[in-house]
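pasting for ref
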Amino acid sequence: MSWITQHLNAAGDALRHLLRSPGNFLLNVLVVSIALALPFAGLSALENVRPISDQMSVEPEISIFMKPDAGREAAQAVGKTITQVLKDGKTVGKVEFIPREKAFDTLKSKTGLADVLATLGSNPLPDSFVLRLPGFENAMDAGRVDDIAQQLKKQPGVDTVQIDSEWVKRLAALLRILRLVLLFLGITLGAVVVAVVFNTIRLQVMTQRDEIEVSRLFGATNSFIYRPFYYTGALLGICAGLVALGLVVAAQQPLNTAILDFAHLYASEFQLALPSPTAIALLLAVSALLGLFGAMLSVRRQLARKA
């Protein structure tokens, strides 16, 4: 109970000192919250976009086009090779053979260019295969398709192999880059937060120098003297975190309006969701820790040489 009472008294003392100069406190909270708002917004956006690449059901397709001069026997041989490659890789796949005649008829019926295609005199389209690979549960698994595609490119009579899941891998790679950028940004702005808290606590220590000296004359320990300043830094971090989260939430409404208009063009209802309670608690904890760390550095540096 004595330990709890000491911490409650220290927290109350920190709060009283903050209320003595609310203007300075609010300005410091505003500066720190602006520094925190950008990484908070980036984390929220990444968490909303991540399901597009990491939690989306993916069914990559590989299109294999034969050379124009390859005969039907060569195409049949490639079909057997595809089956063998899937068997060797223990991969389930659906293979569809599209004869050049069928592809030509489909092209004429869908494009309305029957008269133009008739002037060609012969069918310019090659035989082809479409290989569908179901069972891929996330975008990162789509990278395994490359091994199959590389094997098929080496087969006799094969002209071109195309993978239509390339956009999924590009999106996953882009998100990895954004995570690294956000990490660098978070570290940089975290240092800004620590610097602001450091300077705030330093000024507070200077204004309370006489009070600290009197406390030492009465036998106050360093822990007793340091503790209120630690709570001041933590309170500054938590308040700034709350303001930063408020800014992020306030900015989501106009953003969602614009995003929804854009998503409708792709028959989607995608919107940015609010951070989960767990994410909010984690972000506030990080804010408090940054404030506490800045206060610890400042107090130990300022008071250690006065001990």
